[in-house]
Design brief:
84% of the residues lie in helices and 0% in strands. With 152 residues, it is mainly α. The chain folds into 2 domains: 65 residues, no CATH class; 87 residues, Serine Threonine Protein Phosphatase 5, Tetratricopeptide repeat (Alpha Horseshoe), CATH 1.25.40.
């Protein structure tokens, strides 16, 4: 549903998945569904609800040692805070996500955090900082493309 931009249907599916994860006492499923619901709500323009679901997903990731999902939630939170005009919280979350992504060697998550940081700094009029992040993005994109060619 999500790929076809059928957001209400996607939201229903994710909510059922979250309930199933909760019923099965599987925090991993519930956490993933929270982040997915947050993404759909962001697409629908309901940033307050999107923030709430991503905060809950972040908390669950932290509690369960799911560092990749912790970084993903922080990238999402940073992007949403930026959309709401709260650049300070955006930068804080994005820097934390970038640092965590680098520590766990998640190049794709590191790339996502840096892209969002470049956007925030560009909007702030700090083209010098934004350009640095864009260069880091190009490097990571090249590394990711090289790894895909080697692996497959």
């Amino acid at each position: 549903h999500l790929n076809q931009r059928e957001f209400p249907q996607a939201l229903q599916c994710y909510e059922r998945g979250m309930a199933a994860g909760r019923g099965a006492s599987d925090p991993h499923i519930e956490m993933v569904m929270l982040l997915n619901i947050g993404s759909v709500q962001e697409q629908l323009g309901d940033l307050e609800q999107a923030l709430e679901h991503n905060r809950r997903g972040f908390d669950m990731a932290l509690e369960n040692g799911e560092r990749h999902f912790q970084a993903a939630a922080q990238v999402n939170l940073g992007r949403m805070y930026a959309a709401m005009g709260n650049d300070d919280l955006a930068v804080e979350n994005l820097h934390e996500a970038m640092g965590l992504a680098d520590r766990i060697r998640s190049k794709d998550m590191s790339l996502r955090a840096r892209r969002e940081l470049a956007r925030v700094y560009q909007r702030r009029g700090r083209e010098d900082i934004a350009e640095g992040y864009r260069r880091e993005c190009e490097r990571l994109e090249s590394e990711l493309a090289g790894g895909k060619k080697e692996g497959g």
